[in-house]
Amino acid sequence: MTIKKLYYFQFLLFSVFSVLQVAAQITVDKEKISKQITAYKNDIRGPYKDIRWFCTDGSIRQPKDPCPDDIGPGVQHARYKDEVVALAKENHIYLGQILAYTDKKDFWDAENNHSRLKQYQLDKYLRTIDNGWILQKGQFYRGAVQSEDEEAWGIDFYNWLLKDDKNLIQKYFLIRQSLKDLPHNGDDNLAQAMRSQSKVISDIFPAFMDLRVKIHGQPEVGDIDKVVDFKKKNTAKLTAPINKQLDGLLATMKAYYKPVDIASFEARTALLKNSSIGEAIQKYATANSSEVAPETLIPATAELVLKIREALLTVKDPAARLQLLDISLKMEEIIFKNAPQWETPTVKELLTKICYLGMATTGAGYLELWEWEEIQGVLNAYDTDKLTLEELTNVLETARGQVEWSASMVKANYQEVVNLYTGFEPKAYGFIDDKIRGSIALYLGKSVGELGDFIAKESSLSNKVLDIQNQSAVRGLNPGYAFGELVVIGGSPDDIEVSSDKIYVFQHPPSDLKPIAGIATVAEGNMVSHVQLLARNLGIPNAALSDENLQNLQKYNGERVFYAVSNKGNVILKLESTMTADERALFAKKVRKEEKIAVPIESIRLDEASILNLRNVDASDSGKLCGPKAANLGQLKKMFPDNVVEGLVIPFGIFRNHMDQSMPGQTVSYWTFLNDMFAEAEKMRAQSISENEVENYQLRQLETLREAIKKMPLQPTFITALEKGFNDVLGRSIGEIPVFLRSDTNMEDLKDFTGAGLNLTIFNAVEKDKIIAGIKDVWASPYTERSFKWRQKYLLNPENVFPSILVIPSVDVDYSGVLITKGISSGDEKDLTIAFSRGAGGAVDGQSAESYLIRNEGGHQLLAPAREPYQNTLPTTGGTGKKLATFETAVLNGQNIQEIRTLAKTIRKTLSKDTKSDYEGAYDVELGFKDNKLWLFQIRPFVENKKALSSGYLESITPKINKKKEIVLTTNL
Predict the structure, then answer these.
(1) For 815-861, how does the pLDDT look when each residue is reduced to its tens digit (9 = 90+)?
(2) Is residue 308 part of a domain?
(3) Any idea where the Pyruvate phosphate dikinase AMP/ATP-binding domain is (predicted)?
(4) CA 619, CA 636: separation in Å to the nearest integer?
(5) Which listed residue, 36, 198, 475, 626, has the most CB atoms within 10 A of its CB?
(6) Which domain holds residue 520?
(7) Same domain, residue pair 204 and 173
(8) Are residues 636 and 493 in the same domain?
(9) b/e map of 175-201 (b: 16 or more CB within 10 Å)?
(10) pTM of this prediction?
(11) What whole-number distance in Å separates Cα of residue 513 and Cα of residue 641?
C-alpha cells in the first residue's frame, strides 16, 4: 500500500459533504462540539489519540520503532481521536489538522468552498489568542506534529496548487492569505502574533487595554517604547506570568519591526532570472535597498506588488510562483510598516497616498484587477493642480468604496467558516476583524477618513454621530428621522426579533426585515434590495457605516436616541437628553390616521374566475383583475415579446371564490372569519384596549387563518383549468416544467406604498403537488406577521388586500438584478442605477451586488462589486441550488450595460404612453441575462417617500453645498 493510499484509508471517514449537507447538520451539534473542545483543552494529548510512524511502504509502526532504511524514512506524527474523525465525517469540522496527515486535494476542499483550508487558518488564529486553544495542554505532546514535515508538506501543497492557472485567477486572495498561515518556508505570521499577544495581555491585565487598541488600530514601531514604558510604570502590579507575556510581546514586536532586507530580494529571485518580473524585482531591490522615506518607498513597492500579481500567470513554474507570492507578502509588510510614517500635510500628498495604498491593496488581492481598472482613473486625480469639491467628493466616495470592498473580500472568503465556528467557539468571531486590521486596507481607511474630514469641513457637510471616531465613514442612504432605543447587532441578525419603535445597527440586515424605526448597516447589501426600497419608500432613516463605527456604537446599545439622515446624506445620532425642542416636537403627536394609504377597491373585479393568459393582460388590469406584477409583465410582453416569458395569471376572483368555502373548525367561511377579525379589532380599540393587545389578537387569528388556507381544498374546476393553461400556454403538462409562483396583491405599487418583497414567491416548483401547495401558500402569505405589520402600519383598509398569482416558467439566468430608471446616488432623474448578482434572484434580497451608476451623458461608475460567495441556480428538477461564485470578472459586460441603457430609454419613452398613465416618475425593473439574452421579470413604479424628502426639519439639517468650489491641491489639511 502506498503512503497516499494509506492516508486515504486513514481518512476514509473524512468524506466530503456538499455545502447544503454541512449547513443542515452543523446546528444540531453545537453544544456537543463545545463540550468536546473544552475536553481537549484539558487533555494532555488534545485532539490526538497517539503517535505512530508512517512508513513509505504504508506500514504503521510504534513511536519507538522507526521505519527501517530499506522501506524508506517515513514520517512520525499523531493520529486523531476517534471522535475527531467522527466530527469530520458528521459535520465537516476538522480540529487540530496535521498537514502531513492530509491529502492535498482534500485539504484544498474545493467542493466545500475550501472549508478545510480556512478552518486550518482559523485554528491557528484561535491558538494564538487562547493559549493554544484545543492544544492548551496538548501543545506539549512531544512528537504529535513535526515542523519539518509540516513545512515540507506545505511546499509540496503549493507546488501542486500553483500548477493550475485557474486557482490563481479565481482564488488569488485566499491562496495569498493562506501563505501567512501554512508552513512552507520557515516564516511566521508575526503581525497576527503581535495582535494576538496584546489581546491576551489586555484580557488578563485590563490596564493594558489602551495599548492593545493602539497596537490593533494604529500599529507603528514606536509602540515598542510604549510597551517598555508600560512595564516600567506598572512594575509593582505585574505578576510573573504577565511579565512573561509582555516580554513575549516585545520580542515579537522587535522581530516584526526589524526592517525588511530589501537587498535580499535579489537572492529570492533564483527561479525568476530570465523573466521580466524577476528583472523588475532586482531593479527595485537595487534602487530601494537603502531607501527610508515612506513617500518614496511605498509608491515603488505598491507598483511592484501590483506588477507581481499581474505577472503571476506569465510564470509557469509553480515553485517560481510561490517565490513571487512570498516576495509579494514581504512587500506588503514593507508598506504596512511604513504607512504610519508617511505624513501628508497637503491634499495632494494625501490623495497620492490614497492612490498608492489602493494600488497595493489590489496587488494584495483585496480587490480584483478589473475592479481596480474601473476606479484607478478616479484615484489618479492627484496628478493635477486643483479639483472642484464635486470631483474631490467623487475621489472620496470611490476610495471609501475600495475600503469597503476590501473588508467585504475578507468577509466573502471567511464569514461562512467563522459563523460555523462561532456556534461552538465564540472567540472565532474576532478572526475577520483580525484579518482586516492586518491588511493595508487599515491604513487606506485611515487616509480616506482624513480626506472625508477635510471635505466635510470644506462643504459644511459633517456627521454628528454621538462621540464615535472616524465619523466620515458614516453616510446616509435615504432621508428620514426616528426616535427610539438603539440596538446594535454585531453578529447574525437571524434570531433577532425586531420592534417597530427601535433603531437598529446591523452588521448584515435580515432579508425579511419587519417594520423598524431606523436602520444602519455595515454590509449595505445594495441600494435596490427589498429592504432598502422599503426603507426609502417609507421614510425610514437608513445609513451605511464601517465595522469600526459599529464597534464604537456598542457602548450605546440600549440607549434612547434621535436619529436623522438628511437629503444630502449627512447623519445625526444623539442621545435623548441632547435633543433640541424642534427635534422633540417631531414626535410630540402621533401620526394621524388620515396619513395612511387606502388600498383602492372601487374597480376591483372579483367576478373573473378564469385563469388568464399573460398575453391577454396589461397595465390597465392592475388592481382590477390582478396585481401589478402580472399586469405590468403583461404590458412588457406586448412591448418586448421576445424578452418576456409566457405566463398564466390566477386573478383575484379565484382567490375570493375559494375564500367563500366553509373554514374547517369554524362555523363561518374563510372570508367571514377574516372580516370578523377586523371588526373585533375595531371593537377592542373602541374599548380603549391597548394597540399591542389588539395586534396580538389579530396575529393569533391570522395564524389560524393562514394555516387553514394552506390546507384549503382547491375546486376541481380550477385544477382542470390550471392543467389546461399549462398545456396551452406554457407548452408542457403541469409537473413537467419548473415555474415561479409570484404573489401579486392589490396592495403593491400604490402611489405611496411599494410593498416590495412583503409576500411570498415560490421558487422553481415542478411537481404538481408542490405547485398546488404553493398556490395556497402564496394566498396565505399576505397574512404572515411581517406582511401584516407593514401594511397594518401604513394602510387604512388592510382587510381589502387580495392576492392574485403570476405563474411563469423559470429561467435559470446566469445573473440577475434590478434597474432603477433614476440615479439614486446622483439624484439625477436622467441617470440609471443597476445592481446585479450572479445567478437567480439577484440583488432583491440584499445580496452584495455589483452596482453601477450609469450616467446619462455616457459612461458608468462602479459603485460596488458583487461579493456573494454563492449564487442561486434553478435546476430543471425544481427547487433552488447553490453554486460557488468567484469574483475575477465583472457580472455585467459592456453589451449588457448597453442593452440596459436601450431598455430604459424605451421604458421612459413608451410605457406611460402605452398604458395611458400620467405617471412621470422612475421605474423599478427586475431582469436577468441568460447566455447574454435579456429577460424581463417585473416592472413597477419606484416609490420614494415624499414626506421625508420634503421634510422641513430634514431640509434644515441639509447644508447647501457649492459643488463647483475649487480646491487647490497644495492646500494644507
Answers:
(1) 999 999 999 888 899 999 999 999 998 766 556 789 999 999 889 99
(2) no
(3) 625-947
(4) 9
(5) 626
(6) 464-589
(7) no
(8) no
(9) bbbbbbbbbbeeeebbbbbbbbbbbbb
(10) 0.82
(11) 35
